């Protein structure tokens, strides 16, 4: 029997991408709300009571409202997969990054409420967590995290500005240095010091690079870049959606190379003579950074634990 699924907010970028990924699957029945009833709380509550899983592709406050409707259903509430920022560090919610650590995929599979990982956060955490867990990077080490994303991750206004040609070719943003992804990066990257995070957007629809530069001699224990590569290789062994790659010759990396894929690649660029390293995660911000990750989590919730 097909699992009944409701995508709340399926008109937005993430919701549309999830619906596209699920199209043609006979194990899922997507239940829709009539357009004229989208603002009707009673109509939404009725749909929520009729499905097994609700995926929330909403602004944070709207996501919280839908969760409140589910709370009111008690034992009749569906399981929730929230793609907003609202619940990523909320107690009782399981973080939707299956490769985070041993047992995370099983936790997602069994969870009643899963908070889908953020796009920038997925890359940063993928780079940080294995090194912190391996004792190669202290939790309080001062860090700078740089990232560039395609404009599709910036919401309707940014997408329209780029597609109309009225946006700059490249821009830094969130220069108040309080980006909303930092709390989840700290929580699941196991950092104890607030990182300096500088995101940027380029004039391309999708694609993402997250990079962390390190002066190796400033890191306690003075590790080698090869130690990082080995730690990543162990951590992601057998993970089909995260691959550890040797640094390509030529010292270049295309942000768009994984567009359309739901995978992530991890690289360690190094100059041991200078004792410098740059850790890089490459992904599609709409794939492993959003809708692809949501479908991966959904499949875990439906299947019971297999990646």
Description:
- With 307 residues, the chain is an alpha/beta fold.
- The strands form 2 sheets. Strands 8-9-7-10-13-12-11 form a 7-stranded mixed sheet. It has a 6-stranded parallel sheet with strand order 2-1-3-4-6-5, sandwiched between helices.
- Helix 1 crosses helix 9 and helix 5 runs parallel beside helix 7.
- The protein is globular.
- The chain starts with a strand and ends with a helix.
Identify the notable features of this structure and list them briefly.
307 residues; alpha/beta; six-stranded parallel β-sheet
What is the structure about, briefly put?
The chain has helices spanning 13-22, 41-48, 60-73, 104-110, 119-133, 155-163, 182-189, 225-235, 287-303; strands spanning 3-8, 28-31, 53-56, 79-82, 94-96, 113-116, 144-150, 170-172, 196-202, 208-215, 242-244, 264-271, 276-283.
Overall average residue pLDDT: 95
- Describe the sheet with the most strands: 7 strands, mixed
- Judged by helices, strands and strand pairing, the structural class is alpha/beta
Helix content: 25-40%
Instruction: Specify the number of helices.
Output: 9
- In terms of DSSP E residues, the strand content is 15-25%
Low-confidence stretches: none
Looking across the biggest beta sheet, what order are the strands in? 8-9-7-10-13-12-11
- Number of β-strand runs: 13
User: Cα-atom Rg, whole angstroms?
Assistant: 20 Å
Tell the overall outline: globular
Distance between the ends: 21 Å
- Could you spell the SSE succession in H and E letters? EHEHEHEEHEHEHEHEEHEEEH
């Amino acid at each position: 029997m097909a699992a009944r699924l409701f995508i709340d907010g399926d008109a937005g970028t993430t919701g549309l991408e999830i619906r596209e990924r699920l199209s043609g699957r006979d194990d899922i029945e997507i239940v829709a709300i009539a357009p004229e009833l989208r603002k009707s709380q009673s109509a939404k509550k009725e749909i929520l009571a009729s499905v097994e899983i609700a995926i929330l592709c909403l602004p944070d406050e709207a996501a919280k409202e839908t969760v409140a409707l589910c709370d009111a259903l008690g034992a009749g509430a569906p399981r929730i997969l929230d793609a907003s920022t609202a619940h990523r560090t909320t107690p009782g919610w399981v973080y939707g990054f299956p490769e985070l650590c041993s047992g995370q995929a099983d936790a997602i599979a069994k969870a009643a409420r899963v908070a889908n990982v953020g796009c920038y956060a997925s890359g940063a955490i993928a780079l940080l967590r294995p090194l912190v867990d391996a004792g190669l990077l202290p939790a309080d080490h001062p860090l700078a995290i740089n990232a560039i994303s395609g404009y599709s991750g910036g919401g309707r206004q940014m997408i329209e500005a780029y597609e109309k040609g009225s946006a700059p070719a490249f821009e830094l943003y969130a220069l108040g240095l309080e980006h909303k992804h930092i709390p989840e990066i700290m929580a699941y990257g196991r950092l104890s010091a607030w990182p300096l995070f500088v995101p940027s957007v380029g004039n391309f629809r999708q694609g993402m690079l997250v990079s962390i530069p390190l002066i190796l001699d400033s890191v306690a224990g003075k590790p080698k870049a090869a130690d990082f590569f080995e730690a990543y290789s162990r951590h992601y062994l057998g993970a089909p959606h995260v691959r550890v790659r040797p640094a390509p010759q030529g010292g270049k990396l295309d942000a768009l190379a994984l567009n359309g894929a739901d995978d992530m690649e991890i690289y360690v660029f190094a100059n041991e003579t200078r004792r410098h390293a740059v850790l890089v995660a490459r992904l599609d911000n709409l794939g492993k950074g959003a809708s692809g990750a949501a479908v991966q989590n959904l499949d875990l919730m439906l299947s019971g634990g297999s990646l």
